[in-house]
Amino acid sequence: MEKQFFYEIEGNAKSQEALLLGETIFHNANGYIGIRGAYEEGYPPEYISIRGQYINGFYDITDMKQAEALCGLIEKKQTMLNIADTQSVEIWLGGEQFSLFYGTAKEVKRSVDLKKGVTLRKIAWVSPEGKEISLQFRRMTSFVKLPLFLQEITLTCHNYEGEVCLISSHFGEAENFCDPSDPRVAGEKTQYLFADTPHCQGDISLILAKTSRSGLSLCSGVAHAVPAGFEKQTVVKDKKAVHKITGKSVKGKTLRFYKYSWFSDSIRCGNPEEETEKKLKKVMMQPVEELYGEQEEYLSDYWEKSNLEIEGDEELNSAVHYNQYALLQSVGKDCYSNMAAKGLSGEGYEGHFFWDTEMYALPCFTITRPEIAKTLISFRYRTLNQAKENARKLGHKRGALYPWRTINGEECSGYFPSGTAAYHISGDIAYSVAAYYLATNDVEFLCEQGAEILLETARLWVDMGNYVDGQFHIQDVTGPDEYTCMVNNNYYTNLLAKYNLEWAEKCKELLMAEGKWEALSKKINLLPEEIEEFKKAAENMYLTYDEALDINPQDDSFLKKKKWDFTNTPKENYPLLLHYHPLALYRKQVCKQADTVLAHFILEDYQKLSTIRNSFLYYEGVTTHDSSLSTCIFSIMAAKLGMVEKAYDYFGESAKLDLFNTHKNTKDGIHTANMAGNYMAIIYGFAGLRIKESGLYLSPCIPDRWKSYQFRFQYRGTRLEVKVDKEGCRIHRLEGKPVEIHLHGSPVLVEDDIRLYKRQEDK
Amino acid sequence: MEKQFFYEIEGNAKSQEALLLGETIFHNANGYIGIRGAYEEGYPPEYISIRGQYINGFYDITDMKQAEALCGLIEKKQTMLNIADTQSVEIWLGGEQFSLFYGTAKEVKRSVDLKKGVTLRKIAWVSPEGKEISLQFRRMTSFVKLPLFLQEITLTCHNYEGEVCLISSHFGEAENFCDPSDPRVAGEKTQYLFADTPHCQGDISLILAKTSRSGLSLCSGVAHAVPAGFEKQTVVKDKKAVHKITGKSVKGKTLRFYKYSWFSDSIRCGNPEEETEKKLKKVMMQPVEELYGEQEEYLSDYWEKSNLEIEGDEELNSAVHYNQYALLQSVGKDCYSNMAAKGLSGEGYEGHFFWDTEMYALPCFTITRPEIAKTLISFRYRTLNQAKENARKLGHKRGALYPWRTINGEECSGYFPSGTAAYHISGDIAYSVAAYYLATNDVEFLCEQGAEILLETARLWVDMGNYVDGQFHIQDVTGPDEYTCMVNNNYYTNLLAKYNLEWAEKCKELLMAEGKWEALSKKINLLPEEIEEFKKAAENMYLTYDEALDINPQDDSFLKKKKWDFTNTPKENYPLLLHYHPLALYRKQVCKQADTVLAHFILEDYQKLSTIRNSFLYYEGVTTHDSSLSTCIFSIMAAKLGMVEKAYDYFGESAKLDLFNTHKNTKDGIHTANMAGNYMAIIYGFAGLRIKESGLYLSPCIPDRWKSYQFRFQYRGTRLEVKVDKEGCRIHRLEGKPVEIHLHGSPVLVEDDIRLYKRQEDK
Q1: Closest CB from A67, A579, A581 relative to B66
Q2: Mean pLDDT to the nearest integer, B649-657
Q3: How far apart are CA A339 and CA A357, in angstroms?
Q4: Is A186 near chain B, with CB under 8 Å?
């Protein structure tokens, strides 16, 4: 069991690919800061490194010229910044510098300890001149003290006595990664951060850096704790502070060095420099073991609440744990941040926040750490005004259109047909408000923030849609599937709009019961007839349906297109988006990802089971899963439809995506939505969890290969543990009031202790 | 009558707007070179001038970065270059320099003489010190010697005797116009042309300049002829050759100076420098009066063949003549060039060739100067291979997709939804091949070039379309209307595709009769079953039709959209494209221009008259005419439908567009398609000319205001003159065999002399 919380790789990875992959996989993050797992001592210059450190929500603005200027097209965007480099430490033994790229590495192990919340790099090395040493690098970004990044270097010289010197640097003007040969990342170096000369306070170095255009600033502070007998000296060179730590080694004696990095930014505090200095000094007074202890305690609570175990599938169990951990590392912990598509592990998608948050991450957090879910929604509430402005730019007289991709709430999508046109993001955010409320019953949050989101997004739909033969149509939008753009009546979008409108109406009742309705409707100038409009549009929402196939077509014209010629598409032409012009894709029946199938998951009661089944089978035949957001949803729906082994296969693909780099771009960062989806594939997939207005639902099934699986979650204050094996399902109430569960459709009250149920036969 | 061939403006125009407008209106061009009508002596530095000289088809390549990189999106484009500046001449009288911006201009007249083919600028000026002079600048770009630009400066000093000096310069590295504040033109200066040091041969200066990326070169040569007693001296400064011409004035005596500019480019000749020198020397041997004579003779033939007169509407008559002349100035005279959207009069649309050529210019030239029409089609034939490659890039296994905008045959459209997606351009080109053949019976050209175009474009349609319930559908294209993009079954596109496919089939028969079929089908590997495919697709082509309204909807979903809220759209928000996001436009029923209405004009026999009438009225209600290609078509169709006064109003709007700068962008160049459309509005509109397989059709009507109108055209070698007045219509055979005309539907043979018919009552 323990091993599965400890992800380890052996071998002296000197390949370029492995180094970049390792930087991602072994990154440290806590939702506020993220540090890629580059080697402290660096690589030789011929190696590429994406040596990045990031702060969630901290950005600069950059131009994004359009090839042809059209009114309203976005011409500047936010980009997440690579901030100061504080992780570098060279180690010198006499005249020899430690490096894995020369000498002899007898042992190299990298791991991440998911319970302790640290990464480790353990090395046994012999220098070219024969000095034998053991080295360990332990790194931690604290979940308890978010601005803290701690590095511990443990050095044992086995046959060398003499000078040991650590050159630890602190550089204030790191640059974002660029690669002129890869069109998916920046092509040219751009300096976004301008640093003041480092400022030294004793042996603390502080660097204040300002962004070029966003008006933000950031202070990074670095300090060290060193073994007795070692001396510290700090030198400032240009924009760099260099800490030189020197002393002598004794054979067999272990030397332990600590490097503390602390970050404060102007988004969250008034005086970043003062704050950094004060907090850095304070944290250095605290015993290191206490810092480690806090971290372990935090994680112990996390695993306690979201524990998930698969018996009989060690590799995937381990992968799921890693994914759960990476998700916690990625997700923002305050309303100034959110969860980037790549978390804080790399520069892919420029640190932008997408719908991934609402439709993938939130369903995980609402049932394990609902306060995180609430914070994520708060970010959307905080940026509601920008969403309203965005709607005006798109010609809507009222309502809020959330940006497809953003850091500060403003749209950053340069290609609107598969960006801004994806209006469903507003529906997704509204859905997440309802989902959070249903899981938590947090009516206070609904009154304070959620309802306003529901009402402004509902306004968007009535402004943009129109009635055709009495049915409400939504024209020219892009659904989740980015291989089909700018279509009419995308099923997913229309269904979500319907749900959004229904909830706008519902929240009126809920707020009236709390006495909060009048104030809110006054605040946003909501007219009584608007609620009528919402109701009418929801009731008459047009949802595509094809009688002959008994499926919901993805949009009005999807079934009229030719199917993609999969037979004559060579393997190397996937993902298709890198090999075919958008028009060639749009014109065919081919899906990048779950679209209607996703709608059938999140809102399963809006159509017959036969339609859901037929749709699943139909779309399965035309979906490439080129998006990392796809296989997890297909897994969930296969499980629902009784195709358990198929669900298992999809689940496996999803679980391995980053650890096995199956999409070949993990170097640019982890795929957070997939990680969340992977977790969902167990809870919502195999276990069939649903949280609806009518209550809690479970319909567990289990893949052949597994002996059992168990997980914990919470629902309206009650914490439950579910264990599923070949015999059936046990539900254990851990905490809170008794709760009713619809188990395979039949209501059962989970009272005091443990109950055991025979598993129903697969449908 | 004469006055209408002489467009004149009086007054000393010193306003910025008037100067830029004058540069366009009084430009000189001959289809090969174009010189904007800047003042020889320049403007003060605070004035903006688009001081341009252009060569049709001569371009460089420039980057066009996409905001988001997607596979196949265009990232470099061609741009027409502002070549050497040869038009500058300063005039010094003793220490005083002539300029309209100081001293006293007693008279200033600018005109273009449409019969002589020259522009004139006549000035009576008194210098600050009181020198009274008369000046005339006469400029000509020769239609007979295309590389020649001739300037004649006539100077009379009335009260001054003393030194007269002309500083005539020749600068080899002109730059394209840029304006950082206007997103529609280049924002930054880019040096495209790199010139060698000027090379002087006696008093001839030659400058060879090379483009930065397209690998083209150009030689410009300048020489002068001066009055007896004047001396010439040439000095080279950097990239400039300065010709200083000095002598003495005698009171009342007229001095006459000639500046010759000659251009040769590497597209058309092997050694541009040698060619320029040789030809320039040769042309200087020819008496100037002979050069003027050739020009007048050329134009006399043009007016003889395309003469068009409106009696009773002097202003519009004059505008139509100007438009006819500008069209002749704009159109390319060899297969290396075509007709740019702005002709050779400015840098708008970067000198790109669009469908304007086929659907607007060609219908004028096929009936007046068919050899020009043939040359225009030859350009498309020459670039057929690029069109085939373009189709491959878009994922088509066969066929040719012509670029939406191009100079060298490669796509330059940076925004594909209203660029590359406008597949109708391939249909337009195919249509023009058929139209040229029908008007000329030139079966030889069909065999040599036309048929291959018809077959390769036909292949595109069968590759891209698919059958739905037995009908052939075409998905995800953009029709002529750019306010509605990426739709299914655009009526215009589908109808043109049908016609294209029918003609592909027809050309087989025609070529078989000539014994040319086998060779061609072998050359392009055409399989016999492909002809069957063409036939089947044409026969089963799906054409939208709405029974209730009895109209052809613009596409599958057009009628399902909300109508644009015209009532609440302020006047200053037109053109809409400058004030609304594309999505806001796409989602509504609003048209930039004629789309279905244009299809009803060019292929009127494919639907009932009632459908044509209802469609016209329907689309009239939702069309903004924000495109300059629209009012002319609405005029034609209003005339066809008996709404003669409405046709007259549309015609008037079209006629005045550039001369009255009604679209406010004539500074960037004339609107050639509109000028052609304006001519069409008379011949195809009021006179109802149609050329079909079944023969020649005329259904003349006349607006109330006009006393009469008459025009000349040719049809299969027969030249005819038609005169329409309130009484009826006279047709006069000028040349060629007798021909049958369907006059108001009834066949009549136009034999020897003149026949007179009573006009039918309006339908």
Answers
A1: A67
A2: 93
A3: 6
A4: no
Which chain A residues are within 8 Å of B393, Cβ to Cβ?
581
Q: Report how far residue A118's alpha carbon sits from residue A113's, in angstroms, rounded to the nearest whole number.
A: 5
pLDDT of residue B762: 43
Q: For chain A, what is the mean pLDDT?
A: 95
Q: Which of A68, A460, A467, A589 to mutate to test the interface with B (most CBs of B within 10 A)?
A: A68
B581 and A67 within 8 Å at the Cβ level: the answer is: no
Contacts of A72 in chain B (CB under 8 A): 580-582, 584
Residue of B nearest to A576 (CA): B71
Closest-CA residue of B relative to A488 is: B557
**Cβ burial A267-295 (10 Å sphere, 16+ → b, else e):** bbeeebbebbbebbbebeeeebeebbebb
Residues of B annotated as part of the active site: 482
- Residue A1 pLDDT exceeds 50: no
> What domains are there in chain B, each with its CATH number?
11-63+75-273+288-302 (2.70.98.40)
d(CA B614, CA B117): 44
Residues B190-208: tens digit of each pLDDT: 889 999 999 998 889 999 9
Q: State the pLDDT confidence band at A762, using cuts at 50, 70 and 90.
A: very low
| Residue B260: its H or E element | strand B254-265
User: pLDDT digits over A616-635, tens only?
Assistant: 999 999 999 999 999 999 99
Quote the pLDDT of residue A53.
97
CA distance A476 to chain B (A): 6
Q: What percent of chain B has pLDDT over 70?
A: 97
Per-residue pLDDT, B756: 64
**The pLDDT of residue A109 is above 80:** yes
Task: Tell how strand B217-225 and strand B199-201 pair up.
Answer: unpaired
A577:B70 CB<8 A = yes
Q: Is the pLDDT of residue A95 over 70?
A: yes
| Residue A420: closest C-alpha in chain B | B583
Q: Contact A557/B475, CB-based, under 8 Å?
A: yes
Contact B67 A68 (CB under 8 A): no
pLDDT of amino acid A660: 87
Order the strands of the A728-735 sheet from edge to edge: A308-311, A708-715, A718-725, A728-735, A754-758
Does residue A482 carry a catalytic annotation? yes
Which one, of B18, B307, B321, B344, lies nearest residue B149 by Cα?
B344
Instruction: Give phi and psi for A393, each to the nearest 5.
Output: -60, -30
Query: How far apart (Å, rounded) are the C-alpha atoms in residues B321 and B115?
Result: 10
Contacts of A674 (CB under 8 A, 6+ apart): A323, A360, A628, A629, A631, A632, A654, A657, A658
- Averaged pLDDT for residues A693-710: 96
Interchain contact, B68 vs A395, CB within 8 Å:
no
B187 CA to centre of own chain: 25
Residue B739 CA to residue A648 CA, distance in Å, equals 79
Q: How many C-beta neighbours within 10 Å does residue A756 have?
A: 10
Residue partners of A275: CB distance under 8 A and separation at least 6: A219, A264, A269
Is some CB atom of chain B closer than 8 A to the CB atom of A253? no
Q: Is B700 helix (H, G, I), strand (E, B) or coil?
A: coil
Please tell me the distance from the alpha carbon of residue A593 to that of residue A620, in angstroms, as a whole number. 9
Window A:45-64, CB contacts with B under 8 Å = 64
Residue A82: band (very low, low, confident or very high) from pLDDT cuts 50, 70, 90: very high
Backbone φ and ψ for B35, nearest 5 degrees, come out as: -125, 120
Lowest mean pLDDT among A399-408, A653-662, B393-402, B563-572: A653-662
Q: In this prediction, does ipTM exceed 0.85? A: yes
Residue B450: both structure tokens together: 């036309």
User: Does B394 touch chain A if contact means CB atoms closer than 8 Å?
Assistant: yes
Tens digits of residue pLDDT in A38-47: 999 999 999 9
Given a cut of 60, whether residue A247 has pLDDT beyond it is yes
